[in-house]
Amino acid sequence: MPSALPLADPAPADGTLPRTVADGAARRAFGVYVHVPFCAVRCGYCDFNTYTATELGGGGDQAAYAGHALTEIALARRVLDAAAVPSRPASTVFFGGGTPTLLPVADLAALLAGVRDTFGLAAGAEVTVEANPDSVDPHSLAQLAAAGVTRVSFGMQSAVPHVLATLDRTHDPLRIPAVVEAARAAGLSVSLDLIYGTPGESLRDWETSVRAALACAPDHVSAYALVVEEGTRLAVQVRRGELPAPDDDDLADKYDLADELFAAAGLRWYEVSNWAREPAQACRHNLGYWRGDDWWGVGPGAHSHVGGVRWWNVRHPSAYAQRLTAGLSPAAGRETLGAAEREEERVLLGVRLADGLPVDDVPLDGRPTRVASLVADGLVDGRAALAGRLVLTRPGRLLADAVVRRLLP
């Protein structure tokens, strides 16, 4: 089952936010994330807040989900207005999951219309829907585009059947080119998600997957190292010795190979695990997270952030529905970030971007020594550092978390 919620302060029953969240809001972008917590099958490696029909046990009816999410969208408007947050159109909308495309297209269209009617959509807004390759067809993709979706992100993960089987993925890898072509025919920008480091995946297997993805000429690719999360079936298999744990050296080799192949195909990294063909094709919604912008997360377990206040919703769809039906906020807990915590987050997230982190954002205490040592170790680009920005080298990207630890006092 999904992992537990973070420990923090209880959230007010009505979702009220402090007026401080309005400070500087006009300078921050605003995005909306809609979490669709339904999956046909639970993948063994996944600890996301998702549920199959069996796990729902009759609670949190999938057919009623869109109505409850629309209620939260209306609540969001009231809460932000009460906190005197200036009205901003959504510059990005992201439907994630779970498998958003398990919902009828009409429900997704209604949710997007709800965001548009409640907040407005900025000119050229990016609207992304995540999809499993076997949950869409040319007709549904055309319907999504007609509803205002601009971008689809397919969970490809691998092109190698035995790797997909270990991950409990059920789609046919040969279907990927067809759905990419159908999405492109509908006028949608296309992203492919890959996972490397699955137990039993050889370097040749990984190269096969990368080349298969590139053969589809995607606009964007995400490649994530497999993490064995506690509470998942994969974690149990590793603990029992049925499957080997991911190996750090193997993961590094696979990252290096992917980066080389992506670059040769015209895809440039803009975040440690993300590559885009053009700067405009980077995922603007995720960039909002990394840059500390504001977003409202709709749905069970969804996280939100506005002006240094972060909160998260109750996890189970039935509890989520009950709270909203009773006229209450679905927020389960929240935390207010202090100045030191926000400074830490700027370093933690900003250093992952190809634009780099301003050297001035590194805490002053010991700054020259820390930066110089990272340059000397080949983890940070020396020329960029002299120009005032910390930009990770490829070895630095592999050790991004260690770089952050060395930058912070």
UniProtKB/TrEMBL annotation:
Keyword Iron: yes
Stored SUPFAM superfamilies: Radical SAM enzymes
CDD domains: Radical_SAM
Entry-linked InterPro entries: Aldolase_TIM, Coproporphyrinogen-III_oxidase, Elp3/MiaA/NifB-like_rSAM, HemW-like, rSAM, rSAM_sf
Domain of life, per lineage: Bacteria
Membership in a protein family: Belongs to the anaerobic coproporphyrinogen-III oxidase family. HemW subfamily.
Name listed for the protein in its UniProt record: Heme chaperone HemW
Species classification: Bacteria, Bacillati, Actinomycetota, Actinomycetes, Kineosporiales
